[in-house]
């Protein structure tokens, strides 16, 4: 790759049904074996379940869940001298959204339930309320970064 030019990040296109690029990001994250239509069915089914359970717009709940789960800082291992330090690093907004989506999907797959759509809907509802395993993961990441704040001067 050339070092001279900075490549512009390509943002995903907006989703056809909800007209949101965040939904399209979620579809591409849940994708397995290149089957995009299956991933879309899962997401839309989960959104239907959210609409039935909460009696409100599923897109608003989804956006709130992603905002709640997205981390502001993360830790990165940095080797200085002979020892390795856990250095807290600020996360860019786009990377934070991606991490949040990955955590929601990861913990939805680990949940108990009949279908992935039900599990995903439950995880999104919990994340929007401020509970659930994905919120716990975000809090754990922030706690680790706070406890290693002393090593922040090793940031590069």
Task: Tell me about this structure.
- With about 160 residues, this protein is mainly alpha-helical.
- The chain has one domain (about 20-155): Orthogonal Bundle (Ribosomal Protein S7), CATH 1.10.455.
- The protein is about 55% helix and about 10% strand.
- It contains six helices and two strands, in the order H-H-H-E-E-H-H-H.
- It has a two-stranded antiparallel sheet.
- The radius of gyration is 18 Å and the shape is globular.
- The relative contact order is 0.15.
- The model has no long low-confidence stretch (mean pLDDT about 90).
- It holds the Pfam family Ribosomal_S7.
The amount of beta strand, in percent, is 5-15%
Low-confidence stretches are none
Number of domains: 1
In round numbers, the mean pLDDT is 88
CATH architecture: Orthogonal Bundle
Rg from alpha-carbon coordinates: 18 Å
What's the arrangement of strands in the largest beta sheet? 1-2
Element order, helices and strands? HHHEEHHH
Shape: globular
The span between the termini is: 22 Å
How many E strands?
2
CATH class term:
Mainly Alpha
CATH superfamily: Ribosomal protein S7/S5
Classify the secondary structure makeup into a structural class. mainly alpha
Major sheet summary line: 2 strands, antiparallel
CATH topology: the name is Ribosomal Protein S7
Task: Provide a brief overview of the structure.
This is Ribosomal protein S7. It comes from Ectocarpus siliculosus. This protein has 156 residues and is mainly α.
